[in-house]
């Protein structure tokens, strides 16, 4: 299975701007720029898109792992914070996942075990394994 997105950039790094579009149309010429990435400009940036992908992937992976253990989540809400270290060469060094889940009939120890397994097994976690990935998991 392949999925695609495309980006167009016009101009120099700091003064230029671009757009990002996705195959599904969910992103359609979404604006991005140096200012949106490194200061407070309007638009998105690659790190924000990675954070969105990781939050979504982890939530689905957690649901899948819970299902394998015969638990059905009522809700899973995940936030991902991507840290871009600007020393030397810009590098994504950390991703912190915070998830809150409502899962009937599960105890905290089992939830933590399953959540950590989902963090390790999530396809986006695996592709981003060069970064330190941490997790705070709260059972509601």
Describe this structure as you would to a colleague.
This protein has 140 residues and is α+β, with helices and mostly antiparallel strands. The strands form 2 sheets. It has a 3-stranded antiparallel β-sheet with strand order 1-2-3. Strands 4-5-6 form a 3-stranded mixed β-sheet, covered by helices on one side. The chain is built from 4 helices and 6 strands; from the N terminus they run βββααββααβ. Strand 4 (75-85) and strand 5 form a beta hairpin.
Could you outline the blueprint of secondary structure elements for this entry?
Layout (H helix, E strand, L loop, with lengths): L4 E6 L6 E6 L7 E4 H5 L7 H23 L6 E11 L5 E12 L5 H14 L1 H5 L4 E8 L1
Parallel strand pairs: 5-6
Antiparallel strand pairs: 1-2, 2-3, 4-5
Low-confidence stretches: none
Please bin the fraction of helical residues: 25-40%
Write the H/E string, N to C: EEEHHEEHHE
CATH architecture of the largest domain, by name, is: 2-Layer Sandwich
Fourth CATH level, the homologous superfamily of the largest domain: K homology (KH) domain
What proportion strand?
25-35%
For this entry, what is the oligomeric state of its chains?
single chain
Radius of gyration: 17 Å
**CATH class category name of the largest domain:** Alpha Beta
Distance between the termini: 35 Å
Q: Strands of the biggest beta sheet: in what spatial order?
A: 1-2-3
């Amino acid at each position: 299975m392949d999925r695609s997105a495309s980006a167009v950039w016009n101009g120099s790094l700091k003064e230029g701007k671009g757009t990002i579009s996705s195959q599904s149309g969910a992103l359609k010429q979404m604006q991005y720029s140096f200012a949106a990435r490194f200061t407070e400009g309007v638009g998105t940036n690659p790190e924000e898109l990675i954070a969105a992908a990781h939050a979504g992937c982890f939530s689905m992976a957690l649901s899948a792992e819970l299902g394998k253990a015969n638990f059905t989540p009522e809700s899973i809400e995940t936030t991902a914070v991507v840290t871009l270290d600007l020393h030397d060469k810009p590098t994504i060094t950390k991703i912190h996942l915070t998830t809150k889940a409502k899962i009937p009939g599960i105890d905290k120890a089992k939830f933590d075990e399953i959540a950590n397994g989902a963090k390790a097994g999530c396809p986006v976690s695996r592709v981003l394994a060069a970064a330190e990935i941490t997790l705070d998991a709260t059972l509601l």
